[in-house]
Design the sequence.
């Protein structure tokens, strides 16, 4: 048995949100196709993440609109870094603590991908609190 938000009725309530996000994606694809080839994987990733964020948190984060020339976004970059570096944080918890204590500029210099991730976390924390 599914909880109410994931029921058929809950999914039908999400349809206007999905249509709105698809329209935004379509407009951007129409604009970008004039510039050349489009990598569809980041576009679909931005769309699904945007819909899930809207559904789960009530706001979508603007991932489709974030970068004018492609579908990259700070959130998806950080998510990739977090998923690839997860084992480091599990096996070396001191590294996470040290990374949080150091200035982000220094972390960016030492390990740019971790610096991106930490800077996004700090931005998210400032927006929420």
Sequence:
């Amino acid at each position: 048995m599914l909880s109410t938000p994931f029921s058929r009725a809950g999914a039908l309530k999400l349809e206007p949100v999905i249509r709105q996000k698809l329209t935004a994606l379509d407009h951007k694809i129409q604009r970008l196709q004039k510039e050349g080839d489009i990598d569809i994987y980041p576009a679909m990733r931005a769309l699904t993440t945007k819909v899930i964020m809207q559904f789960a948190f009530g706001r979508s984060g603007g991932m489709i609109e974030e970068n004018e020339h492609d579908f990259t976004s700070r959130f998806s970059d950080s998510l990739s870094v977090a998923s690839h570096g997860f084992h480091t944080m599990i096996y070396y918890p001191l590294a996470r603590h040290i990374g949080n204590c150091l200035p982000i500029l220094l972390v960016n210099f030492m390990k740019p991908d971790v610096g991106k991730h930490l800077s996004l976390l700090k931005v998210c924390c400032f927006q929420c609190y």
User: Anything to note?
Assistant: The chain has two domains: 4-72, 75-128.
